[in-house]
Amino acid sequence: MNNYSEKFEKMRVAGKLAAECLDMITDHIKPGITTNKIDNLCYEFIRDNGGYSAPLYYRGFEKSLCTSLNHVICHGIPSDRELEENDILNIDVTTIVDGYHGDTSRMFTVGEISIKAKNLIDATYNSLMNATKILKPGIKLGDIGYEIQSYVEAKGFSVVRDFCGHGISNIFHEPPNVLHYGKKNTGNELQPGMTFTIEPMINSGKYDAKVLKDGWTAVTKDKSLSAQFEHTVGITENGYEIFTESVKGYKKPPYNK
Ligand code: MF3
Ligand code: CO
Ligand code: CO
């Protein structure tokens, strides 16, 4: 027992529900489903399993999760848009269970996608997992950013600057900011008991972003594709724990092969 074990236990429960929600929706990702339908299915799944969708009414957001398609970087709003062959899609789910949050997102692909899109998705997933594997007390926030930035830039992709990971616990977004670019051995030191997200947004073109008139949807300025994966993690005495790992073993697309 330590002074954060109760918090970690709650984060584990909330994180597991968020991951199970993404597991559940995976089979539904096919041409013709609307992003509103995805939103509804996930809302009901979370509610029926004892949680609440944190994005719903968060700072005026009117849906229960984010669906970010193709050149949308993040905070895409579910709509009547039907998924089509060739689409790449991020679904970002955040649960609240017993006051604590679990925040996770994965990429999904619809039918055949381009080699470039596949490479972008693979690089984004790998960058998240590479950054996760180095987590332990004593490393610095900049080490996380460095890991992600050096990996994806070597492949010719870019790291979005305008959005970052965040502390998370009984509050959805709290300090520290977790930047996905940076220099080794800079920034605050990680301490046991810290809980935060890592959620790199990686573009196939330039990193510049803009927010559409709806006030939420962030897109790449150059209309290039963007990908993202997110985990909620906790720092332990000598390493880390991922709270949002798939129960079904889903990591990156394709999920059913
Ligand atoms: N889940 C997003 C994150 O990773 C935040 C979404 S807030 C919303 O931090 F209001 F846009 F839903
Ligand atoms: Co987040
Ligand atoms: Co999220």
Write a structural description.
The chain has 257 residues and is α+β, with helices and mostly antiparallel strands. The protein has one domain (5-242): Creatine Amidinohydrolase (Alpha-Beta Complex). Helix content is 26%, strand content 25%. It is built from 4 helices and 15 strands. The protein has helices at residues 5-26, 35-48, 115-133, 141-153; strands at 52-53, 66-69, 72-74, 88-97, 100-109, 158-159, 165-167, 174-178, 195-198, 201-203, 209-211, 218-220, 226-228, 231-235, 240-242. Strands 1, 2, 4 and 5 form a 4-stranded antiparallel β-sheet that branches. It has a 3-stranded antiparallel β-sheet with strand order 3-12-11, with no helix packed on it. A 3-stranded antiparallel β-sheet has the order 6-10-13, covered by helices on one side. A hairpin with a 6-residue loop joins β11 and β12. The longest helix is centred in the first third of the chain and has 22 residues, at 5-26. The chain is globular. The N and C termini lie far apart (40 Å). Residues 92, 94, 103, 105, 199, 230 line the site of one cobalt (II) ion. Residues 103, 166, 197, 199, 230 line the site of one cobalt (II) ion (CO).
